[in-house]
Amino acid sequence: MSMEIVVASRNPVKIQAAKDGFEKMFLNQQVKMTGINVASGVSDQPMSCKETLDGAMNRANAAKNALPNANYWIGIEGGVEKCHENNAMEVFAWIVVLSLDPRKKGMAKTANFYLPQQVIELVDQGVELGHADDQVFGRSNSKQNNGAVGLLTNDVITRSSYYEQAVVLALIPFKNQQLNFPMPLRQNATYRRCLQEPSQDSSNIKSQMFPDESFTAEGINIPSGVNDQPMTSRETLDGALNRANGAKEKIPQAQYWIGIEGGLEKVDGTDAMEEFAWIVVLSQDKRGIAKTASFYLPSPLIQLVEQGMELGHASDQIYGKSNSKQQNGAVGLLTNDVITRESYYEHAFVLALIPFRNPSYTFPLPE
Fold first, then answer.
1. How far is Cα 157 from Cα 258, in angstroms, rounded to an integer?
2. CB neighbours (10 Å) of residue 26?
3. What is the pLDDT of residue 195?
4. pLDDT per residue over 30-47, tens digit each?
5. Looking at the domain that runs over 205-358, which CATH code has it been given?
6. Which among 180, 295, 305 is positioned nearest to 231, based on CA atoms?
7. Cβ-count burial of 89 within 10 angstroms (0-12 exposed, 13-18 middle, 19+ buried)?
8. Domain ranges of the chain
9. Phi-psi bin for 308: left (phi > 0), alpha (psi -120 to 50), beta?
């Protein structure tokens, strides 16, 4: 028997991303996909995290109302948000998954990356991001093809694979039915504005972004300068910046220095707690920054973390593992390694390399 999935869009990129995500999380199920055009209820170009989430929720609810006999309904909404610092503008999307059980839903936010100044100027003038991309990069209808993320990474990350990772993360509550996952509610949730060394061989990722160059990677222990368990996005970004800068000071003859810091943040006004990581890449004269996709933790993990336990140790205790923080981590445990901790970081690492892959553009970044 197949699962019927309704995607609140007829955009083929979104339908494919949803299909791939469901098939990876539910290996023994056949999926039947239906796309339907519904109103987002927000601007054509959402300009904040909250507006973008509202759009995804509105789409999912409208799809469920229009085709109520399916098993799942999924809304995908892309948006941008301007940072206060340096005129930086981040790009992301929200994924919302609804099921027949009105008490259960899944939500996740894609990894974010930063736009070049030329695109920011057009968006600030009221041009939708897809049209701005077409104008700056000389393309046509890129929003239904590879999008900004594909254009800026040379399709190392396609728009479909960009969404797919977050679809998998949004399906975590349905894959772990025995656990309760507090989710943020629009009416009282507050989303904060933007503001250790890699566990995998980062040279492999650089080779994808720079296929004509060879790389070697070296790990070095550098203090983060923040708490062992960062509890805000700002603290987590500071940890990644401190690690990258510390590595640069210690081994100044390298070409690149990378800081990766994982963190958590409670969504204000709710019981929800999201997990993410910040990636910082430095060179002699340039830097790149990206944030991984965000997903929500189950109540047992939240309770232990709020008692002062680091997430890795809490995961070990709940799942009966040992040293999971240096293996698959919470993301691997909750997705059954559909997304490993390594692939979770790698996705954002590619996005952090965008300024180096596109040296002719200026990328305002948060401090």
1. 20
2. 16
3. 44
4. 999 999 999 999 999 999
5. 3.90.950.10
6. 305
7. buried
8. 2-176, 205-358
9. left
Domains 2-176 and 205-358 share a fold: yes
Q: Tell me, what DSSP letter sits at residue 192?
A: P
Element (H, E) at 154: none
DSSP letter for 196, please: -
In the numeric block, the tokens 């309704």 are attached to 6
CA distance 315 to 171: 19
Nearest CA-CA partner of 177 in 71, 106, 266: 106
Note the pLDDT of residue 358.
94
| pLDDT tens by residue, 187-213 | 444 444 444 333 444 555 555 666 667
Distance CA 244, CA 225 (A): 11
Place of tokens 């992301």: 92
**Interval 79-96: pLDDT, tens:** 999 986 678 999 999 999
The alpha helices in the chain, defined as continuous H runs, are: 12-25, 49-66, 117-124, 129-137, 147-153, 159-170, 172-175, 202-209, 233-250, 299-306, 311-319, 329-335, 341-352, 354-357
Contact 2, 38 (CB under 8 A): no
Average pLDDT of 104-112? 96
* Alpha carbon distance 148, 358 (integer Å): 12
Give the 3-state secondary structure of residue 40: coil
What values do phi and psi take at 275, rounded to 5? -115, 150
Instruction: Give the whole-angstrom CA distance, residue 176 versus residue 319.
Output: 12
Q: Is 281 helix (H, G, I), strand (E, B) or coil?
A: strand
Question: The CATH number of 2-176 is which of 3.30.1330.10, 3.90.550.10, 3.50.50.60, 3.90.950.10?
Answer: 3.90.950.10
Q: Say how far apart CA 290 and CA 292 lie, in whole Å.
A: 7
**DSSP state at residue 179:** S
